[in-house]
Design brief:
The complex is a heterodimer of chains A (184) and B (223). Chain A is of the alpha/beta class. Chain A has one domain: 3-Layer(aba) Sandwich (Rossmann fold). Chain A contains six helices and seven strands, in the order βαβααβαβββαβα. In chain A, helix 1 runs parallel beside helix 6. The longest helix of chain A is centred in the C-terminal third of the chain and has 18 residues. Chain A starts with a strand and ends with a helix. The relative contact order of chain A is 0.18. Chain B is an alpha/beta fold and 223 residues long. Chain B has two domains: 183 residues, 3-Layer(aba) Sandwich (Rossmann fold); 36 residues, no CATH class. In chain B, helix 1 packs across helix 7. Chain B is globular. The chains are: A alpha/beta (184), B alpha/beta (223).
């Protein structure tokens, strides 16, 4: 059982620290990436990863290390402040490279056109940290995680953490996430 | 009627792709009505080719701002979100009270895929105190691949007409009506879905052959 956390929070915060601590205490194979400290170039949609170097980005940056770890893991957790009802740019810089996790070919599933997954099925968990955002933005965040999971063809879960809530309550949320991971 | 100016943000990294083709048509249609429009490329600001502080004047001169963007992993791209974050932190005052609308375009035909992108544009507008005039969703942008709409026959004519009606609405400060969305929506009958997949996969294999019979299914990060 291995888990990858993609932390798209922009600065040091209690939620990230608690996440890292609880996950590392409970799961031996926890790989925690603080994206704000990493050099990840934007995806320029050049298509090299489809036909020139299949499954691999031609840009030399820290994304390779993250994608290698995801390819070998069972679960991917996205952690982000809810920004305009979606992900922060800090998280989005790696999510744009999720194209590398799918093939350039096509399949039809329940009437939807999709790209097959390159590395099989994983669990996707999206965690949005809400600070003074409307319910509508939380719902859009959940919809975005759902769309990502749909395209990757992964089962998924979403959680909304309110930054005003006590850290103990957030810890309960992390433990419920761990339960999902253990149950596969 | 007062002459208005639209500032069009091309949210694609490709300066001659489908988002640019749409932006170009919006600009032309706007100028045809005696109003003015200017296209800027978000990627130029991200890469530092253009200075962010120069935007201030452009925004002050504009009455309406439009985001025209491709769908990247189900919403706006990293650099588009970066750009909106910068606008919120540095230019909220200049943007307040202006009108904003968006056009999202995705590769797949299903237009519901663009919903998170358009909602994100709306939430951005609301956060800076702009008036959200609505969004249009185009499915199948990859098939257009940057072609000019006037070169696409009947399909192009319908999209141009859809944009024309949308512009009439926004130039009057009205919400974009559903008529525009209906005109630009391409319905693919269920019976044609499987032949479409077969056609697209034929092209995938052809491209792989053209690139030295490359194994496009390679699991590069497990090697």
């Amino acid at each position: 059982m291995s888990i990858v956390i993609l932390d798209g929070m922009e600065r040091e915060n209690n939620t990230s620290s608690m996440f890292e601590r609880v996950l590392k205490e409970n799961l031996e194979k926890t790989f925690y990436f603080k994206l704000r400290d990493m050099n990840i170039a934007p995806c320029s949609c050049c298509e090299s990863c489809s036909y020139t170097t299949p499954g691999k980005c031609v840009v030399n940056d820290d994304a390779h290390e993250i994608l290698k770890t995801i390819a070998k893991s069972d679960t991917v957790i996205l952690l982000s402040p809810i920004r305009f009802g979606g992900y922060s740019s800090c998280l989005k810089k790696i999510v744009d490279k999720f194209m590398l996790l799918i093939l350039p070919s096509y399949r039809l599933k329940k009437g939807y056109l999709l790209h097959p997954a390159r590395y099989g099925k994983k669990i996707l968990i999206g965690i949005g940290v809400a600070e003074d955002v409307l319910k509508e933005q939380e719902e859009n965040f959940e919809k975005l995680v759902e769309h990502n999971a749909h395209n990757l063809q992964y089962p998924y879960k979403t959680h909304i953490l309110r930054s005003s809530e006590e850290i103990e309550k957030a810890e309960d949320e992390v433990n419920s996430i761990l339960k999902v991971v253990h149950e596969g | 009627m007062t002459i208005k100016k639209i500032l069009i943000l091309n949210g694609s990294s490709r300066k001659k792709g489908t988002s640019f083709s749409f932006s170009r048509t919006i600009k032309t249609l706007c100028e045809d009505t005696g109003n003015s429009a200017e296209i800027i490329h978000v990627i130029d600001y991200f890469k530092g080719k253009e200075e962010l502080h120069q935007l201030k004047e452009l925004m002050l001169q504009s009455d309406i701002i439009a985001m025209v963007a491709p769908l990247y992993s189900d919403t706006l791209s990293y650099y588009d979100i970066w750009f909106l974050e910068r606008l919120v932190s540095e230019y909220s005052h200049e943007l307040r009270g202006k009108d904003f609308f968006a056009i999202g375009q995705c590769g797949f035909p299903d237009i519901t895929r663009n919903e998170p992108l358009l909602n994100t544009c709306r939430f951005f507008a609301e956060e800076v105190g702009m008036r959200w005039l609505g969004g249009l969703s185009y499915g199948g942008g990859a098939m257009i691949n940057g072609a000019f709409l006037e070169d696409l026959g009947k399909k192009g004519e319908k999209i141009i007409l859809g944009f024309k009606f949308a512009l009439e609405d926004v130039l009057q400060g009205h919400q974009i009506s559903s008529k525009s969305q209906e005109l630009i929506t391409v319905e693919i009958p269920k019976i044609l879905q499987w032949p479409l997949v077969a056609f697209l996969n034929y092209h995938t294999r052809k491209k792989a052959r053209e690139n030295g019979n490359i194994d496009y299914k390679r699991r590069a990060y497990l090697e």
